């Protein structure tokens, strides 16, 4: 999907927007809005995953504080690693969403 988004943004930047008919312009707008909605839904899923990781991280830290041991430390480190990975993925998707918004701004300035 990331490749599809990048291709769509490149296509919009290369379009001669003055030469497009109203129907073609509205089709481009619909496609961009559909991509924006898809990315927003994916971001929402990632937020839910991040929230679950926060809960598991806090539970594992509480477990580590109440029963300090090597396995509990390992669980805490795994939770931290998963939390960092989820945040990195979220940031990457958020940047893609920003690029889509820029492309939609280009389309909506014409009309």
Short account of what is shown:
The chain is mainly alpha-helical. The protein has a domain at 41-111. The protein has helices spanning 2-14, 22-66, 70-110.
Describe the protein in words.
- This protein is mostly helical and 111 residues long.
- The protein has a domain at 41-111.
- The protein is 89% helix and 0% strand.
- It contains 3 helices and no strands.
- The chain has helices at 2-14, 22-66, 70-110.
- The radius of gyration is 21 Å and the shape is rod-shaped.
- The model has no long low-confidence stretch (mean pLDDT 85).
Structural class category: mainly alpha
User: Segments where pLDDT lies below 50 for 5+ residues?
Assistant: none
Helix-strand topology string: HHH
Estimated radius of gyration: 21 Å
Helices and strands in order, then pairings?
Elements (H helix, E strand, L loop, with lengths): L1 H13 L7 H45 L3 H41 L1
Keywords:
0% strand, mainly alpha, 3 helices, 111 residues, 89% helix
